[in-house]
Amino acid sequence: MTKEEFNDVWKDRIEPGFYGCQIYDETIINYLNSRFKEYAIEYPDFTFSQIKNKFGRLVVYIEGVPERYTDRLLNGMKL
C-alpha cells in the first residue's frame, strides 16, 4: 500500500489541517494499516494527524487510543 492509498483509506480519521501519512516504506504502511483496522473496531473515534520520519525515526501522532498501545506502534523505530 502506498502512502496515498493509506491516506485515502483513512481520510476520515485524519485530523483537519494535517496531512496524514508521509512515509514511503510500504511494509511499515501495511503494518500501520492492519493496526488501524484493529483500532477502528476497539476505538471507533480514534484520529491521527501525522505519520512521518523525524530525525530518522518513525513518529505517529494518534489520538483516542490508550498510550500503552500507541507506544508500541513503532514510535521511535529507525527508518
Oligomer status: single chain
Label the structural class.
alpha+beta
Measured by DSSP, the beta-strand proportion falls in 15-25%
Query: What general form does the structure show?
Result: globular
Lateral arrangement of strands in the main beta sheet: 1-2-3
How many distinct domains? 1
The count of helical stretches stands at 3
Number of strands: 3
> What gyration radius follows from the Cα positions, in whole Å?
11 Å
Query: What number is the mean pLDDT?
Result: 90
Secondary-structure element series: HEHEEH
Which residues sit in consecutive blocks of at least 5 with pLDDT less than 50? none
Q: Mind describing the biggest β-sheet?
A: 3 strands, mixed
The percent range for helix content is: 25-40%
The end-to-end distance, rounded to whole angstroms, is 17 Å
Structure description:
The protein is of the alpha+beta class. 35% of the residues lie in helices and 22% in strands. The chain is built from three helices and three strands; from the N terminus they run H-E-H-E-E-H. The protein has a three-stranded mixed β-sheet with strand order 1-2-3. Helix 2 links the parallel strand 1 and strand 2. The radius of gyration is 11 Å and the shape is globular. The model has no long low-confidence stretch (mean pLDDT 90).
